[in-house]
Structure formats: C-alpha cells, structure tokens
Amino acid sequence: xxxxxxxxxxxxxxxxxxxxxxxxxxxxxxxxxxxxxxxxxxxxxxxxxxxxxxxxxxxxxxxxxxxxxxxxxxxxxxxxxxxxxxxxxxxxxxxxxxxxxxxxxxxxxxxxxxxxxxxxxxxxxxxxxxxxxxxxxxxxxxxxxxxxxxxxxxxxxxxxxxxxxxxxxxxxxxxxxxxxxxxxxxxxxxxxxxxxxxxxxxxxxxxxxxxxxxxxxxxxxxxxxxxxxxxxxxxxxxxxxxxxxxxxxxxxxxxxxxxxxxxxxxxxxxxxxxxxxxxxxxxxxxxxxxxxxxxxxxxxxxxxxxxxxxxxxxxxxxxxxxxxxxxxxxxxxxxxxxxxxxxxxxxxxxxxxxxxxxxxxxxxxxxxxxxxxxxxxxxxxxxxxxxxxxxxxxxxxxxxxx
Length: 402
Hints:
- The chain has 9 helices and 18 strands.
- With about 400 residues, it is an alpha/beta fold.
- The protein starts with a helix and ends with a helix.
C-alpha cells in the first residue's frame, strides 16, 4: 500500500469529510499549511480552566451520563447506573487520540464535539477509580498527517503537541498532584505522546515513584523479544498482575480471525530484536480472559467507523449511552507473522439473543478496512477490566507508600 493511500485511510478513520478535505486540497495548500505551522506558538497557560476538558469538582466533558444497558445472552436487559467516586485516592491523566479535522497542521484549543465525544467514550468512566485530568492540546491534525505523509516534515507540529502535553503534566504536578499516585491513560496519538513523556520525564526519574500504572492503548511500546522491559522504557516494565505498580498496559486489538498484516499499521516495533509489547487486561499473567467492555451506543462524532446498530436479534431498543455484553468477548495476546496483537473473539451460540456485533471496525465506502483492526474500540473493549485493575493497583500503591 503506498503511503498516500495509507494516509487517506487514516483520515477516513476519523470522519468521512476529512477524506474530502484531503483529496480536494492542492499540493500547494498542503505546503502552505505546513509553512503556517513553522512559527513557534506561545505555550498554553494551563492555569486557565478552559484549557482542560476535565478537572475534578466541576461540570465539564467528564460530567456525563454513563448509564449502561447490560444485555445477557438470553436477551434480558438491565440498567447499570454509574457514579463517580466521591473521594478517589489517586488521579488519572489522559491524552486523547487524533480527532481534529481542522484544515491546519495543528489543532486549536477550542473544545468541540469531537474532543468532548471521545472523552465521554474513553475516559469519563475512569472517574470510578480516580480524579480526572484531561488537558486540551494542539495535536497534529489529519491535515498535518497528510502534509507529513506527502513529503513535508512537520517537526514543529509534532513538538507543539508534545510540549503542550508536557506543559499540562508539569502544571498538574506543580498545582494538583501533591504527592498523589497517578495513572496515565492515552490512546493512539495520545498514547504515543505519553510514551514520549514517560521516556523524557518519568522513566528512571524520582517522579516514577508516583506512577501507579500507565495504559498506552493503540500505540506501540517496544520491548526486547521475550522481555518485559528494556525497549521503549529502561525501567518501567509491562504489567503482569493487578498488584504490580509502576508498570505499563499496552495492546493493539484485532479480531482473532483477522490479524494484522506485515507492513501494516500495528503489531511491529522498530529496532533490532524489538517486538510490540502486548499485555492482556483480561489476563495480565497470560492466556485468555473475558473482556468487560463498555461499548458506546452514540453516533461517534470523532470517527468514521461502523456506527452502533442493533445489539439484539429481537427489536428491543437500547436507550442508554452504553451497552455491556457479559461473557461475549474474550481476548488473548497472540503472534502472527512476527506481529504481536490482542486477539479478540466473539463467543456466542446460535441461541444467544445478541447479534454479536461490537461496531469497532473502520469503514471506508461501506467496506471494512481490516488493517485497522479494532482500533476504534481499543479502550472500550477492556474498560471494565482496566477499572478493576486500576482499583487494585491503586490499593497496592497506597499500601506500599504508607
């Protein structure tokens, strides 16, 4: 697959209209967009509340309805209410994935439906175990990726995104952390930025002692083959139990019957002897386990994916913003053609009243793009598992500290 086509598929992952923007932009426009990003913008002031999507104690993007319909195999439905923890003992610091469709290299700092939508889908539920901190940042947009993939380097834009995240992190440490444990959570571009943050600011430094865990999802973390540490991070290992702290959970999810392809987007790590790490949140010690997914029933403002449809064979409407499908999904870390990934299976019999659809595929022109796997629902597939793990890790971190 040539690089330009690959980028168009990347753009289509997030919204159909981005394809039209990319295809209609003459090369000179792309070049001008890259040139516009060259001057170094002033740093963000993270003392301003508007530069945060989520902060503790206020009504914001994380103060949303997360009520879930739990659908059993026999078709029975029950509502699962949700409330944030009253006084959680640790914090969560989240960096969201690529969502911006702005016609510039770097996004602005306006909180739009895409940013709010992905926070609702991926992050707000973690308020069950931690205080929530989610900074806005000037991410590399789809147009920025187009500029880079068509031969125009965009180091300023990439540096701007990282510097914003680092500035937000330092502001949080200086003004809000007060020695508390913190869980880092990022997906896709957000996961890659947090990987850089750990490499530059945390790994092997005193602040590492405050890291309860890091979940870098849909982003590649390199480890030497057969090892849990020594690639991307020199000191922070992969998590292999829920009582382990200061460790990393990472995976790139694919349907078990459609593994990643060699030369594709996921499953491989750069560097001799390096492989992409995989930690299965349904079975950290290894093997397979049951996923506790929370899948969105909303139309996704931030992605061009298979939009949520019928969850049951019978015509029973779901009126809550999320569904859970107990026992239907299992996962294990797998290797295919030297590529590591989280293999997700849908387990249902003919008698199962559920359709078996989880609506996590990337769709272009009505066709599922298998090279993306289940990237859209990387976080949601194991959200319940991650909440349980984070709760246990938080207890272990507090017990070790006090």
